[in-house]
Every structure is written in structure tokens, then in C-alpha cells.
Amino acid sequence: MTDTRIHIPVLLDEVLAALSPRDGGLYVDGTFGAGGYSRALLQSSSCRVIGIDRDPAAIERGRALAQEFPGRLEVIEGRFGDMDRLLGDELLAGHGVEKVDGVALDVGVSSPQIDEPERGFSFRFDGPLDMRMGRDGPTAADVVNTAGEAELADIIYHLGEERMARRVARAIVAARREAPIERTARLAEIIRSVVPKGKGDGIDPATRSFQALRIHVNDELGELRRGLSAAESLLAPGGRLAVVSFHSLEDREVKAFLRERSSPPPSPSRHTPVTAVAEHHASFRLLSRKPVDPSEAEARNNPRARSARLRAAERTEAPAFPAPGKEAA
Ligand SMILES: C[S@@+](CC[C@H](N)C(=O)[O-])C[C@H]1O[C@@H](n2cnc3c(N)ncnc32)[C@H](O)[C@@H]1O
């Protein structure tokens, strides 16, 4: 029997082509996971890789992989949204560089996470309602048992794109009055009791609400925003950024970020303030205008790949835009 917990890297050849690794280069794999991208990078050239993951189980796997590539792979437990801080000047100086040559992000959850009932991501198996990729912060159970009905409805509507979000939130609040909701199976039942099965799409009615809670619990969109901006400040001119996303909410973030960062400066007019022209220099050049989707063969062989989409860009010489909440450097 196939072990479904084995994670098959998605769009691997395409990500490698985008990063175009070179001997001696230093690359960041911001979502180490099962190490598929890191391994491929290390095999492709005599480069070095720094792997980041917020999941301690991924870091364990990283330590094992590091032994296969002595001195070339380092793994750090943390969030990729903090990667500029995690890879401080000291760490980079230890590698003899000031900047890195590539950053890969393959956002979302890994197969080992989703298929392990104890992690509480899946409505297909019963498990504690956890959904945290890392070990900090509130669990999904904390959220469903304490958030107000309107807040729950907002989370489920915006992050799950569930049209029946209000109904789901109302059912959750009614059920938790009976007893706290602690297990994935119970939450799935509550959702299924109010959301009808879609006609012909075969999607479980709990899918969208579970996705919403997972994105909320892990602040996945906030992480993505911070991670893109951190990558911008870490990449050397000519360095490449490759981001694989799995749903439209994530892809929208990546697209908007790259569109802003790759746009030409506004043509000066006597109405344009001088500062706006001076500050607006494209910090990225898109590698292709359209995103890269998986081939038919990949989508057939790996169902996880079906909704994947890669966007990639090359860092220019221009200074990084000010990071959200930070002053311009
Ligand atoms: C889709 S998997 C990556 C799979 C990897 N590319 C491979 O080939 O094995 C996503 C991984 O990113 C991690 N992750 C997601 N968001 C993160 C974040 N903000 N910071 C650090 N790790 C994150 C998850 O814990 C998970 O292990």
C-alpha cells in the first residue's frame, strides 16, 4: 500500500528551473516540509540551503537530510515571515555572504501534517481539533469554542469562501453550548448538518470551513505577506523568488505583491511628487507574466498538485520597498 504521508513535491522541476541554482550559491527553502525542494536543490549543484519550517517534525526530517549533505544544509525552526530576522547578518556572514541567491516558498500544509490525525487538520480522520503547524498560539478548538458568532462567520466566509458561513457559525455556537467542540469529527458533523453536499463536485461540505480555520489559526495570509517582503530584503540582485500557492486567496497575495514590485515607475508629470518617482523602482522582474500550472501528468499523478500555481521573479538592484509596518531603510 502507498504511504499517503509521503509528501510528493509539487511543481518541483518548474521551481528548480525558476531558481536556477548555481555552485556555491545560498538558497532559502522557507517551507522545508518533507525536504523535497531542499534535496533537489542540493542535488542540482554544489549550493548550500537554509531550510525553515515552523513544524518541529519537519525540522527533525531536516536534521536527518543534513547528514546526507554534510556542511550544506542547515535547518531552522521558525516562521518564514520572520526569515530576514532568522537569517540575521551573523548567520549570513558565517556563510560569507550578505544576501541569498534564491528563496522558495511552497505554502500550505504538507501531506504528513494533513494525514496525521493527531495534528487535527483533517475532517477525514478523527483527531484533536488542533490545526497548528507549529507549537505556539491558539488551536482550532480554542477558536471555535471562544470566538463570537460574527467573528466565526467572518473567518469562514473570507478564508473559506463558504457562502453558508453564517449558518455554520450559528450551528457551532449552538453545539458548543452543549459541550465544547474538541474533535475534528464532531466539528465536521456540525458543519455537515447545515451545509448540503455540493451537486456533483464530490467536495465534503466541511472542506471550506476546515480550510478557513486552518488559515486563521496559522495566520497563513499574514505570514505570506511578511514572507514575501522578507524575501525581497534578503535576495541579492539577480536572486530568484519562487512561490507555489494552492488557492486563490494565496495566489492573489503573491500576484499583487509581484505586480506592485515589478511595475515601472509612474511617468513623472508635474503633478507627481518627486519622492514618489524616486521611491518607486521595480525591485523584481517577473520571470513570466503568467503563473505556471502543473502539467497534465503531474495533476494526474499527484492530486495535491491540481490547484498549485507557481509565480517567480528575479530581484533587481533597486532597494526593497518598506516592509509592512516598518520604516523605509
Ligand atoms: C507544502 S509543505 C512544503 C513541502 C516541501 N516543499 C517539500 O517538497 O517537501 C509546507 C510546509 O511549510 C510549512 N509552513 C507553512 N507555513 C509556514 C510558515 N509561515 N513558516 C514556516 N513554515 C511554514 C509547513 O509546516 C509545511 O511543513
Total beta-strand segments: 7
Sheet bearing the most strands, described? 7 strands, mixed
- Helical content, roughly? 40-55%
Distance between the termini: 54 Å
Task: Name the CATH class of the largest domain.
Answer: Alpha Beta
Strand content: 5-15%
Q: Which stretches of 5+ consecutive residues score pLDDT under 50?
A: none
Region (Disordered): 286-329
Binding site for S-adenosyl-L-methionine: 35-37, 53, 80, 106, 113
Subcellular location: Cytoplasm
Keywords: Cytoplasm, Methyltransferase, rRNA processing, S-adenosyl-L-methionine, Transferase
List keywords for this structure.
329 residues; alpha/beta; Rossmann fold; DNA polymerase, domain 1; 7-stranded mixed beta sheet; 7 strands; binds S-adenosylmethionine
Question: Would you summarize the structure shown here?
Answer:
By secondary structure, the protein is α/β, with parallel strands linked by helices. Helix content is 42%, strand content 13%. It is globular and about 60 Å long.
Would you write up a description of this structure?
The chain is α/β, with parallel strands linked by helices and 329 residues long. It folds into 2 domains: 196 residues, Vaccinia Virus protein VP39 (Rossmann fold), CATH 3.40.50.150; 94 residues, Putative methyltransferase TM0872, insert domain (DNA polymerase, domain 1). It is 42% helix and 13% strand. The chain has 15 helices and 7 strands. A 7-stranded mixed beta sheet has the order 3-2-1-4-5-7-6, with helices on both faces. Helix 2 links the parallel strand 1 and strand 2. The longest helix is centred in the last third of the chain and has 15 residues. The termini are far apart. The model has no long low-confidence stretch (mean pLDDT 93). The protein binds S-adenosylmethionine. The site of S-adenosylmethionine has 23 residues, from helix 2 and strand 2. It catalyses: cytidine(1402) in 16S rRNA + S-adenosyl-L-methionine = N(4)-methylcytidine(1402) in 16S rRNA + S-adenosyl-L-homocysteine + H(+). Specifically methylates the N4 position of cytidine in position 1402 (C1402) of 16S rRNA. Its EC number is 2.1.1.199. Keywords: Cytoplasm, Methyltransferase, rRNA processing, S-adenosyl-L-methionine, Transferase.
